[in-house]
């Protein structure tokens, strides 16, 4: 990959002048960040009892239906294998209502469940008593790892090749406690997070490098995966393609007719694969349940009552503050957040906003070199990011206004974008800030360690599953080493960047 249109180095280049074939330290740091995430999430997956979350039984039922060759409906009861006694006991035992005994997550598109079908076959062959929910937990973790990698790539593209920002962004995602718990459950959030982040990466890459058939092909492929993961991810992907098409309309040369044609071809190329592969599913949802995500049907099914108005919820500041604070502070929502932690989280958000504002000013040439300005996110790239955040916020408001619970888990489709913006904003304000924030997340109370995770599970009133001493030692040792390596690389790359700027 050659020089990008912003003038900065692409992924294959090194600002330090090292050959592109040499392994970049930032990539070593990315691997370390992913290992820490895997260790922390694995600790949750192994220590949180199966079906602790009501949702797991429904997701597992969907996966078994797909593995058996049919697409379930919301009111279908799961077909539980005879040997899956733990799963059967949970489904037939006490539940709030019969509504929770069905495959009520069948409003989701089937891609995630198609991908995990081999794990379900393996579980059935092995006669697992949990029906394979543990395998689904590890699949969710694996998909989330892909999301962390795409977060790295996205931040690198946003900055025109600045790998340290990519590493900082990926580290933020890898170390947030909320992700450790949620991605360790047998849900489809990992695929949704990875797919939406990949869509934004593909869109920013397409905008930075100019129109190309290969770039449009990559964008269309990522949009198709997003559409197959969750309805919320599909909506985000469609919005991203719309922004890219508008940018194409504005920037393409020639007459209005030629511009409109270019924009239309971009929209078709970006959306056609998704429409062909998964359009039928959303039409099915509309036919069966009344809307593409079956939102109204589910809220009525679970006897939820409308809460406020969408506009009122949008302006409910304390709701957004709570959702934001859950990400870096809480693993399980039942935990209580210590006041100092909330203050630190709020300060980091304010500093990020200031840094992004400074970055916008310096891009206009009021400060910094041409090289420095080339590393600032382009206006079109920032527009894509802003639209993603707005769309995700809108889906949360829509869900909450209908009676659903507003939780940080629903932010995951925008998690990669938010991490990228945080990393860039902090770096533009002060180069050491991303290092300090990552170190704080990584070292404060050591929340990535199995012992600390065990304590949090017990504080939430859950009886944890046993984890062997050897497993604890391996997970702890890997985590500690990788966190130290990660922080050291972030610090070293920051010093190198400062030296390059001074030169």
List keywords for this structure.
disordered N terminus, mainly alpha, 0% strand, 69% helix, 503 residues
Task: Describe this entry's structure for a reader.
Helix content is 69%, strand content 0%. The relative contact order is 0.14.
In helices, the fraction of residues equals: 55-70%
Question: How is the main sheet built?
Answer: none
The overall number of domains is 1
Determine Rg (CA atoms, Å).
23 Å
Q: State the secondary-structure class.
A: mainly alpha
**Uncertain regions: pLDDT < 50 for 5+ in a row?**
1-19, 364-375
Give a count of the beta strands, DSSP E runs of length 2 or more.
0
Beta-strand level of the residues, as a percent range?
A: under 5%
Mean pLDDT across residues:
87
Short description:
The protein is an all-alpha fold. Helix content is 69%, strand content 0%. The relative contact order is 0.14.
List the helices and strands and how they pair.
Layout: H1 25-47, H2 54-67, H3 85-92, H4 111-115, H5 117-126, H6 133-158, H7 163-175, H8 177-182, H9 189-209, H10 213-229, H11 231-251, H12 256-289, H13 295-301, H14 310-314, H15 317-329, H16 339-366, H17 370-374, H18 379-401, H19 415-429, H20 433-443, H21 450-459, H22 469-502
């Amino acid at each position: 990959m050659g020089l990008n249109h912003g003038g900065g180095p692409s992924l294959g280049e090194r600002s330090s002048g090292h050959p592109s074939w040499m392994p970049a330290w930032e990539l070593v740091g990315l691997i370390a960040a992913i290992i820490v995430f895997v260790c922390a999430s694995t600790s949750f997956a192994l220590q949180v009892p199966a079906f602790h979350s009501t949702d797991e039984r429904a997701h597992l039922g969907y996966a078994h239906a797909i593995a058996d060759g049919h697409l379930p409906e919301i009111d279908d009861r799961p077909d539980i294998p005879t040997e899956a006694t733990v799963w059967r006991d949970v489904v037939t035992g006490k539940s709030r209502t019969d509504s929770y005994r069905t495959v009520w997550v069948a409003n989701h598109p089937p891609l995630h469940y198609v991908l995990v079908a081999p794990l379900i076959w393996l579980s059935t062959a092995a006669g697992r008593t949990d029906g394979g929910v543990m395998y689904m937990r590890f699949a969710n973790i694996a998909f989330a790892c892909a999301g962390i990698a795409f977060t790295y790539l996205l931040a690198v593209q946003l900055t025109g090749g600045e790998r340290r920002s990519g590493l900082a962004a990926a580290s933020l995602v890898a170390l947030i406690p909320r992700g450790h718990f949620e991605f360790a459950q047998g849900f489809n959030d990992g695929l949704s997070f990875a797919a939406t982040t990949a869509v934004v990466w593909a869109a920013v890459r397409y905008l930075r490098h100019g129109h190309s058939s290969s770039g449009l092909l990559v964008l269309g492929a990522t949009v198709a995966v997003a559409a197959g993961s969750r309805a919320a991810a599909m909506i985000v992907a469609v919005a991203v393609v719309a922004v890219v098409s508008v940018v194409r309309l504005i920037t393409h040369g020639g007459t209005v007719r030629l511009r409109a044609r270019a924009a239309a071809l971009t929209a078709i190329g970006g959306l056609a694969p998704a429409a062909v592969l998964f359009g039928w599913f959303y039409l099915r949802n509309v036919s069966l349940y009344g809307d593409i995500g079956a939102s109204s049907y589910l809220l009525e099914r679970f006897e939820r009552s409308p809460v406020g108005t969408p506009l009122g919820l949008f302006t409910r500041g304390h709701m957004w503050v709570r959702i934001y604070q859950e990400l870096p502070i809480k693993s399980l929502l039942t935990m209580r957040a210590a006041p100092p932690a909330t203050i630190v989280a709020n300060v980091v958000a304010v500093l990020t906003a200031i840094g992004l504002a400074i970055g916008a000013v310096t891009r206009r040439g009021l400060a910094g070199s041409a090289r420095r300005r080339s590393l600032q996110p382009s206006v079109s790239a920032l527009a894509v990011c802003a639209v993603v955040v707005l769309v995700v916020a809108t889906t949360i408001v829509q869900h909450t206004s209908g009676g659903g619970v507003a939780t940080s888990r629903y932010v995951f489709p925008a998690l990669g974008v938010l991490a990228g913006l945080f990393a860039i904003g902090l770096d533009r304000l002060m180069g050491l800030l991303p290092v300090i924030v990552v170190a704080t997340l990584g070292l404060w109370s050591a929340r990535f360690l199995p012992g600390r995770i065990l304590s949090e599970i017990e504080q939430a009133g859950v009886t944890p599953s046993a984890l062997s001493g050897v497993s604890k030692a391996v997970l702890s040792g890997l985590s500690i080493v990788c966190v130290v390596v990660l922080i050291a690389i972030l610090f070293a790359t920051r010093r190198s960047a400062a030296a390059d700027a001074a030169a």
